[in-house]
Amino acid sequence: MSHNIPGGRSHDLAHLAHVEMLTPKPEASLHFFTEVMGMTVSEQSGDSVFLRGWDDYEHHTLKLTAAKTNGMHHFAFRAASEHALQRRVTMIEARGLGVGWHDGDEGHGPAYRFHTPDGHLAELYYQTRWYQADETTRPALKNQASRIPGRGANLRRIDHLNLLASRIPPVREFFVDTLGALLSEQIVFDDGTEKGAWFSVNNKSYDLAVTEDHAGKRGRLHHVTYAVDSREEVLRAADLCLEHGVHIETGPHKHAVQQTFFLYVYEPGGNRFEVANAGARLILAPDWQTVVWTETERRKGQAWGLQTTPSFHTHGTPDRPEEDL
Amino acid sequence: MSHNIPGGRSHDLAHLAHVEMLTPKPEASLHFFTEVMGMTVSEQSGDSVFLRGWDDYEHHTLKLTAAKTNGMHHFAFRAASEHALQRRVTMIEARGLGVGWHDGDEGHGPAYRFHTPDGHLAELYYQTRWYQADETTRPALKNQASRIPGRGANLRRIDHLNLLASRIPPVREFFVDTLGALLSEQIVFDDGTEKGAWFSVNNKSYDLAVTEDHAGKRGRLHHVTYAVDSREEVLRAADLCLEHGVHIETGPHKHAVQQTFFLYVYEPGGNRFEVANAGARLILAPDWQTVVWTETERRKGQAWGLQTTPSFHTHGTPDRPEEDL
Amino acid sequence: MSHNIPGGRSHDLAHLAHVEMLTPKPEASLHFFTEVMGMTVSEQSGDSVFLRGWDDYEHHTLKLTAAKTNGMHHFAFRAASEHALQRRVTMIEARGLGVGWHDGDEGHGPAYRFHTPDGHLAELYYQTRWYQADETTRPALKNQASRIPGRGANLRRIDHLNLLASRIPPVREFFVDTLGALLSEQIVFDDGTEKGAWFSVNNKSYDLAVTEDHAGKRGRLHHVTYAVDSREEVLRAADLCLEHGVHIETGPHKHAVQQTFFLYVYEPGGNRFEVANAGARLILAPDWQTVVWTETERRKGQAWGLQTTPSFHTHGTPDRPEEDL
Amino acid sequence: MSHNIPGGRSHDLAHLAHVEMLTPKPEASLHFFTEVMGMTVSEQSGDSVFLRGWDDYEHHTLKLTAAKTNGMHHFAFRAASEHALQRRVTMIEARGLGVGWHDGDEGHGPAYRFHTPDGHLAELYYQTRWYQADETTRPALKNQASRIPGRGANLRRIDHLNLLASRIPPVREFFVDTLGALLSEQIVFDDGTEKGAWFSVNNKSYDLAVTEDHAGKRGRLHHVTYAVDSREEVLRAADLCLEHGVHIETGPHKHAVQQTFFLYVYEPGGNRFEVANAGARLILAPDWQTVVWTETERRKGQAWGLQTTPSFHTHGTPDRPEEDL
Which ipTM did the prediction report? Predict the structure, then answer.
């Protein structure tokens, strides 16, 4: 625990809020998220379906939209307050990456759109609609957002998002300097090349990761991750993916970086999706020092020695040239 | 491990095969077993629905029958062979407890009916119909009986049956001497009164238990138990029972006797039902000595000190005088 | 989720840092914490032993001190920065509860001592000594504080502290108004009496709880809690307590309040100690509304229906009148 | 479930009893088995140490012997009775594979030694010494063999043995025809070559496996396996192997064959060792049909798609030519 990055969490961003995922196979993707993963539909509107895990407190955390290609349309963070939102919008504009305000979407209020330095579309907002349970989703215990569905993998809540970027440093600087995130871990090779960066805006050890796009493309998605409560539930999710013919890319296994217990699959639209358990791991120290993994350390593979599957370094979405569509 | 009972397992009985459970609330009971417990319907016939867990290899292990009262109609063991079946039928007849042959039922062939010394109706058979998976239940791995459903508690297989008896010794003698079971554990109070007996016919540490009916009635049911793979799954079953308003009588906790990790609930018809995990516990020793628990030891409560809920000693089914029906 | 308490987390306090526990049986208590619970000794000094869980990043989180009585000497929170520390000290002094600065202790720098309105001794500090692993405790993965010991219950990190108070409202107001904590849940009976309050200073759903002392005493301890990674580990901790003759007061079971999966035992000195798993439960919403449990809801017992053991309401430490010592 | 092998379990063999493992690094191997795996020493004698898991009922299940090479000296099955022992000795002698009687060893009585058709040394015996717990190992619950140690991986009991053989068919025929085992699963390639066979002598789905030695050698060991109670414990065993620098060959993952949840490591002497959980999986059906896996099915890798590590097919012990020693 050596490499000190100036600045810690600003607390201006509260948490990763939602991801809009594109799929060329909307029916199959919806079946995957509801029946295999156990998510619940909050609303349907136009080409989009709004979904959430049973303990996601907002209206939705996944917006699934039918499209010609796969990939991510945008992602969103919820700000900690109206003031925090305004403060960060000012900084994003000063950085020259702003797109502008829009009126909001199903479930949340006005949002400010911007691009990451690598071209991913993102937004910040504060006003939100808390999920209101109905007769079929009301929980027995009122301190949880909705009923545990007892369906498929029973995903609990959105956990983090992993972007691909053609170059890491500009994205890293943007998340730390402009958005006020903590750089909790990173991979830096012997020649100084940054291969990955993990950011935290709260006490979770990360909410967002950026890893190098070996194809050199800009603005792509590596994966979206939802959390379950235990490693046993990740294993059971793998059993269910096997039963349903879902493509398992790698895992279950334990990452060395962040120690996440992971299962990576491809949802029917081709986007990589992760079911993970982070257990009791939190960053509570206010003076956390960035953990920097070296090239030699990364060559050891994952925590228990599994070598990373090649597709993990090459598959991103959208995964086809636009001219093919 | 002290009290030696002459004779070990005969291997003539293969395993507990099924239980026919009666319910005055057939729709609610069926919803409980399918949606909350995750069992699957094999067939419906007349007033009965035939159900199984995802790794039960036979056509059914639970026959749920609409009736004026709750309780158990009969239970069945599968014999290890036609010869073993005939041998035990001869011994039952010699004991004067035989009822006679019937043609079988959905899913199995000719069965010999008899009574336990306490009046429970039971049967033995050998010929059975292996469950044939269809497109919706075919497992990904062909060494399991059907697909893990990803629904509710995902019950795996029938585990054991617990009868109530007005007096234990005649029932104990019958299972050991006439049916060739091993008495793996028992409770004997200081005055010599037997309070409970646990029997094994294979390497499971028990398939059948008989405990004292404090109401002094004959032939009643205490509970039926299905197994899941882990303690974590028993806990999740409790979460789901809570969500669905199922009455949880006691648990999850660990029994001292047999060390079963248990959850006891009442299905909507009023019958006690257990979800349990026995983990890797097996009796492999061919010369196992019956474990005898004393009155003092039983006063300590369950393994981690939970005192037994009073209803656990008083509730049995049918739970109303026949004249009330 | 209804009762709105003005003010959210101030982020001035980072986390619960340590507890100094008193024990009249120091050798037996030390054996319990190291051999049964799996904690590791950082240092011994005078009558005190400094201990930590394998992922506690500070020098110690438990200071175990030989004394004539049991109970808690003091507890400490780490501030988020020097400025945050100074800000809260000023507010505590304005509230008239300050005691003053002391030079610090093994493992941390200058600390400001104060009393809660109910008389518990507490302190705040910022400067700390990160735990430095040696050859026998160096972890294989450098993003964890030290090696998983593979001993006893393998406690991971300090989780929360539960105080007893003669009256809840003054303590609640102090933690919210003076220390800037979020009141995440509380129990309020029909006549308006507050029975318990749970406070969060970060994204954990609570770091501190205060419940009513039925004996009407001031300044006592209810329990200290350490976290493990899974419910399965809590169950295994119960198995180990059973093997070692540790008194299990109640559990494992699941609280309705905060949904903590708990095991309560008495360490040999008589202090209540909890092993718990909170899984993926976090409060990420910046506008969380306090969950208020009513008298009727509390009568239902714990999450799965377990009625609270009477001693849970009556046992606190120190547990004997001072004149007896 | 198609390929019917005439004959089922004879019940003459009760269970796999012990394995004598050779190690050129006796101190390091002993440290691995006691401190990392959590086994307990029953006795030391000459160059051998006798070890057991906490619920192994016999004096020992692993005899660890210092030697110039690694590998297995012999393995043993316990017979179900003196008659069963005599019956199988007669059949082995008729098969021409007998070696003869010896007086027994620490912990068991007279044993009959023989060779498998591939040259592995084996023995059968009936008389045994049940493990007698002392003050430090006496369990709290008297229906378990000894105290859960709370040390390392807490291995519960010996589970199975996997031999390598230059040719499978003779070994398969010997175990089925001469020893009366059930062939529960096997791998048969498209050209009819048998690649592996799994045998059960009780209700466990296997006690012994034989897989092809790609090096074409005779009589070698692939691995020995001990069982824990849950998949979570296998994962924790992997965490501990990582902490202790134990070489993890592959896993944790789930086999398609037998569905075992596995972790394979090399103990310091170079022998492959497995920690596994089989959950509630048992073969209770008396008419089980051998599950035959095809070449195509095996190409899919393990259950969740992990491709088998090359060393899994090439590493066996002893792993060096005898002339090298």
Answer: 0.94
How close D163 comes to chain A (CA, Å)?
25
Reduced to 3 states (helix: H, G, I; strand: E, B; else coil), residue A323 is helix
**C242/chain B closest Cα distance in angstroms:** 6
Please indicate if any CB of chain A lies within 8 Å of the CB of C281. yes
Element (H, E) at C85: helix C82-95
User: What token pair was written down for D139?
Assistant: 């369990």
Nearest to A120 by CA among A165, A61, A177, A79: A165
Q: What are phi and psi of B143, to 5 degrees?
A: -90, 15
Q: Which residues of chain D does C35 touch, with a Cβ-Cβ cutoff of 8 Å?
A: 150
Neighbouring CB atoms inside 10 A of B166's CB total 18
**Calpha distance C25→C214 (Å, rounded):** 26
- Which residues 183-242 in chain C show a CB within 8 A of chain B? 230-232, 235, 238-239, 241-242
pLDDT at residue D323 above 90? no
Give the type of residue at B306.
L
**Tens digit of pLDDT for each residue in A210-229?**
999 999 999 999 999 999 99
Mutate which of C31, C236, C241, C248 to test chain D, going by most D C-beta atoms within 10 A? Answer: C236
- Strand, coil or helix: what is C92? helix
- Answer whether 0.90 is exceeded by the pTM: yes
Residues in chain A with CB shorter than 8 Å from the CB of C159 are 280
| Contact (CB<8Å) C150/D38 | yes
Helix (H) or strand (E) holding A296: helix A295-299
**Residues of D in Cβ contact (< 8 Å) with C156:** none
Note the pLDDT of residue D321.
57
- Give A139: exposed, middle or buried? Use CB within 10 Å, 0-12, 13-18, 19+: middle
In this complex, the residue of A143, A185, A286 whose CB is nearest that of residue C258 is A143
The verdict on B259 touching D (C-beta cutoff 8 Å) is yes
pLDDT beyond 50 at D3: no
Average pLDDT value for residue range D226-233: 94
Which chain C residues are closer than 8 Å to D243 by Cβ?
139-140, 147-148, 150
| Residue B325: per-residue pLDDT | 42
Determine which helix (DSSP H) or strand (DSSP E) holds B274, and give its type and residue range. Answer: strand B272-277
Q: Rounded to a whole number, what is the distance in Å from the CA of D159 to chain C's nearest CA?
A: 21
HEC string for C155-184:
CCEEEEEEEEECCHHHHHHHHHHHCCCEEE
Q: Residue B241 and residue B35: Cα distance in Å, rounded?
A: 11
Structure tokens at D221: 């060991």
Q: Which chains neighbour B (Cβ–Cβ under 8 Å, 3 or more pairs)?
A: A, C, D
Tell me the residue length of chain A.
Answer: 325
Cβ proximity of A64 and A51 under 8 Å? yes
Q: Is B4 an 8 Å CB contact of chain D?
A: no
Give the Cα-Cα-Cα angle D171, B11, B64 (nearest 5 degrees): 115
Mean pLDDT, residues C212-221: 96
Rounded CA gap, D186 and B148, in Å? 23
DSSP B308: P
Residue of D232, D248, D305 with shortest CB distance to A304: D248
How far is it, in rounded angstroms, from Cα B95 to Cα C125?
80
What is the bridge-based pairing of β-strands A62-66 and A71-79?
unpaired
Give rounded-to-5 percent helix, strand, coil for chain A.
Answer: 20, 35, 45
Which of these, D86, D93, D77, lies nearest to D128 by C-alpha position?
D77
Number of Cβ within 10 Å of residue D103's Cβ equals: 7
Q: Using the Cα atoms of residue B187, residue B192, residue B194 and residue B199 in order, give the sign of their dihedral.
A: positive
* 3-state percent breakdown (helix, strand, coil) of chain B, nearest 5: 20, 35, 45
| Nearest residue in chain A measured CA to CA from B146 | A243
Burial A198-231 (b: 16+ CB within 10 A, else e): bbbbbbbbbbbbbbbbeeebebbbbbbbbbbbbb
**In Å, how far is D139's CA from the nearest CA of chain C?**
6
